[in-house]
Structures are given as C-alpha cells and as structure tokens.
Amino acid sequence: MIHPFFSIVVPTYNRAHFLSKMIESVLSQTFIDWELVIVDDGSTDNTKELIEKYTDSRIRYLWQENQERSAARNNGIAVSSGQYICFLDSDDYFLEDRLAVFYKEIARRDFPKALFYTGIYFETNGGFTKKMEWPNVYKTMMDYVVYNVIGNPQVCIHRLILEQHKYDKRFSISEDMELWIRIINAGYPFIFLDYYTVVATNHDERSVNIGTGNPYGKMLLLFKFIFSKEHPGHVVSKSMQRFVLSNAYYGQARHYIFVNNKWGAIYSLIKSVVLFVKSEQTKHKLFLLNKLLVTPKRDTNKIFRYIGGR
Question: What is the pLDDT at residue 309?
C-alpha cells in the first residue's frame, strides 16, 4: 500500500480567517495516515504565515500564481502521494471520524478504483442541516449527478482516476460536476456511503453568493459546454438539461435583480420559465416578471425582498 493512505487537497485564496478550523479538523482525525496539501492560489493575506504555524510534518503548503480552484486542485493532486485523494474547501471542515469512515468502507470493498462520496452538513449561524441525498431514480448516473449535486468536500477518489482525469481549469463553478461526468463516462463506480462527516459553512463569501458576482452566469457557460456534442455529458436527458438550465437562468435573474439590471433579469426569467414550464416555481417566477415589468429600472433591486430564500 502507498503511504499516506489519504491525501487531502485544499485550494485556498485569501481565506486565512477560515483556515484554522479546517486544519484543526484534519489534525483531529481518528485515522492518522494522511497528508494535508494546502494549495495557496496566490493569496495576498496572511495565509502562508498562518499555515507555517502548524509544525505537523503531514501538512504541506504549496503556493501558485492565481489560477483559480481547478488549477489549484490539479496542482495539489500532482504533488500528493496518497492512494486515495479527498478534497476539502478552506471554509469547510471534517468531523473527526471522516477518514476512518472512508477507510473502513474502502477496505471492506477491497480498495477499488472508484469514487466514494458521503452526505454533508450545512452550517448556518451555528445550526446544522443535512443536505438531502436523493435516491437515484434516473436511467443514467449522469442524470443523477447533474440533479443531485455532489460537492468536492463529499468525495474521496482513487488516485489513478485523478491521474487520468483532471479538473478543467476553465471552470470554477460546478467544475466538480463536469469532472464527475467524465469519470462516469470512463466507467468508474460511484459509491455512496450513508454517513455525514463533513460540514460546509454558509457565509457571505461563498462562491455561489449572488451578491459577490454572477455565479450562475458561469454555471450556464459550463452547462452549455457539458451538454454540447464535444462532451460526454451530451447524453444527459433533455428533460434534465432543461431542468438545470432553467434553475441556472433563475439564479442569474436573482443576481440581476440584486444588482439593478432590470432587462437582464427579465430576459433570464423568461428563459427560465420557457425551459421548464412545469417547475413548481413557475408562478413565483411569473409574479417576479410582472413586478419587474411595472417597476422603474432604478428600483429593480427593491424587488429582491420578494425573492426571499428561493
């Protein structure tokens, strides 16, 4: 067996204020055969100084010019040496039995070349909720991973798979889904372990926050690539394609409402409704569309309160 058994790859950029909790969660693992590879994507804060305070030899620090998270993960994989590679984001953390659970289940299956994943908790203001892991009722695994988002912190993957299939450096939103589709297409098993041992924290700096950019615009670009003929994801069912594209356009509409872009919001809402008319949110979207049409452009962002948490 290759040692360490697990490599944990963490990309980070200007998040020194989150790193201590993440690092401590790895140091607290009951399974101790691991290395932690933290890839600093060109941070300008005190990330390097904070990491260097930890003297455990299993913690490795790698700095790179800013290239975004997919390149950072690829570089972390390249310098890692574990037989199985796990991922963690710098603002998330493991519960103490995370690696022990993976090792037990991987060993029980005789160390297969596979992608394993678990459930995940979301932490908001000290409260915890489980992300629902929906049963796979779809004809293909590709449809399932497009519908049931499996995030990087949930997975642990045999290194041979990741040596053959890298993250696409062009994408920094839903880049994990794009990689999972290629791994499925290559015939590797996806194995769900019914445990919840990782926590993602909700906060204003998250990359999917509509107030810090237009993440859904990036998501739309990625979906259009995945569903094109040049990508194995083109076999995802048309109904699933319409469903996720509709959701992405709705997310983009919410961003445009937030930033006072009335016509961008109207266009995105219309696209969302047309793509998936049967959505449970269609009435809400039509209500928002009507509000936008009668609201002066300068007051578009006042509609944001009608969106609520949807």
Answer: 44
The arithmetic mean of pLDDT across residues 29-45, rounded, is 95
Q: How far apart (Å, rounded) are the C-alpha atoms in residues 177 and 291?
A: 34
Mean pLDDT of the chain: 90
Report the CATH superfamily, name and number, of domain 6-201: Spore Coat Polysaccharide Biosynthesis Protein SpsA; Chain A (3.90.550.10)
| Separation of CA 29 from chain center | 23
> Are the beta carbons of 226 and 181 closer than 8 angstroms?
yes
Model pTM score: 0.89
Neighbouring CB atoms inside 10 A of 259's CB total 16
DSSP secondary structure of 57-94: TTEEEEE--S--HHHHHHHHHHH---SEEEE--TT-EE
Residue 206: pLDDT band (50, 70, 90) is low
192, two tokens: 């769900």
Domain boundaries, the chain: 6-201, 211-307
As a whole number of angstroms, the distance between CA 153 and CA 22 comes to 12
CB atoms within 10 A of CB 125: 7
Long-range contacts of 46-49 (CB under 8 A, 24+ apart): 46/16, 47/12, 47/14, 47/15, 47/16, 47/19, 49/16
| Rounded Cα–Cα distance for residues 141 and 25 (Å) | 32
CA distance 71 to 57: 24
